[in-house]
Amino acid sequence: MIDACSALNHHELREMARRFLPHGVFEYIDRGSEDEHALRELAQAWRHWQLTPQVMVDVTQRDCTTEIFGRTQSSPVIIAPTAMAGLVRYNGEVLMAQAAAQAGVPFCVATQSITPIERIVAMAPGADLWFQLYHWEDRSLAHQLVQRAHDAGARVLVLTADTVIAANREYNTRNGFGIPLKPSFRGAWDVLCHPHWLLATLLRSTWLDGVPTFAHYPEAFRSAVTRPSISKRIQVAQSLSWSDIAQLRKLWPGPLVLKGVLQADDARQAMACGLDGLVVSSHGARNVDSAPAPIDVLPEIVDAVGKHLTVLMDSGVRRGSDVAKALALGARGVMVGRLPMWGMAAGGAPGAAHALELLRQELLGTMALTGRRSVHELDASLIRHGAG
Ligand code: FNR
Predict the structure, then answer these.
(1) Spatial CA neighbour of 96 closest among 343, 278, 388
(2) Cα–Cα distance, 165 to 236 (Å, whole number)
(3) Which domains occur in the chain, in start order?
(4) Residues labelled catalytic
(5) Residue 145: how many other CB atoms lie within 10 Å
(6) What pLDDT score was predicted for residue 231?
(7) Which tens digit of pLDDT belongs to each residue from 106-145?
(8) Is the N-terminal amide bond of 180 cis, ω within 30° of 0?
């Protein structure tokens, strides 16, 4: 079997991840919600956007470095927040941060991380860490978490707005892979059929750190991911509103970003509330099964706020050409979720770093073939919408 760092593309990394992970964990990462219309739509949407090459341009020197929120990075990519990466591999969030540091891009730590941000900082020196907030019902506990992330050294705060309830992902229920995790015979058999994962992830984590917990939950509410009830105080606030943004704006001195925006009006409101940026995102087609593909709504959001806010996007980025399309439509950068997760499952931190390097090389290749020397030259003249 080939090693993760020899994978040629995302298909090979995904396949390696599929073999390593129990079916329940793999599906948790891979799939969408309900009938997966949004997931299929996502794949189609990228294909409908086409890049029209310009020829006779000297592209000997190409550079895809860029600056996002005041820091230069090696490519316009950020590792997206992904809950429970620590169930993919032991210390999974640390591995992601190490991969990000190696690749020279930021890593956004999730609220529902298995590894605490303090350990990530200690074990991934030099990583540019952002922090993703699921805003809990109990405002004061949520604000304490924000303070904790700040004290640990997170540079950018990303508030996820699109997940006020857990989405309907029936396969997770069938696999026993909801939050909380529900142990079952089927799940146990699945795990036994993946002995490498069982040894390298589950037993190692449990032996070294005890049963995995959500590391950012306050001590009093910190329970094993298998515990049946989660206190209402630390459930995501269904009452989340723009007034919460005003509070966060007062608390957070650095860049503040809203993730999960798909409407131009929401983007305008975000601007009025003093946010610094947004992520145009459908959560990787994991929430609203009738959601549009973010790449399709990106142009109207860039039109509305692009001159004033840093617009990022995600959902379905798999190739460097996807990154080029997003930038040509006005995004400053893209987040990637599944791609580095597959890389990390396939080969730990080097596997995740390899996934990011593939993306960077593909972007540089796309730039060469379309006559662009820097990411700033990836503009509207490059892109057209093809099929109707
Ligand atoms: C996510 N995503 C996510 N987003 C978020 O704001 N908080 C979270 O805890 C999670 N958890 C999570 C787990 C897993 C397994 C995945 C795949 C995704 C969504 C993520 O940040 C991002 O929006 C999407 O993953 C982008 O789509 P792609 O790149 O995965 O196609």
Answers:
(1) 343
(2) 7
(3) 4-385 (3.20.20.70)
(4) 283
(5) 20
(6) 82
(7) 999 999 999 999 999 999 999 999 999 999 999 999 999 9
(8) yes
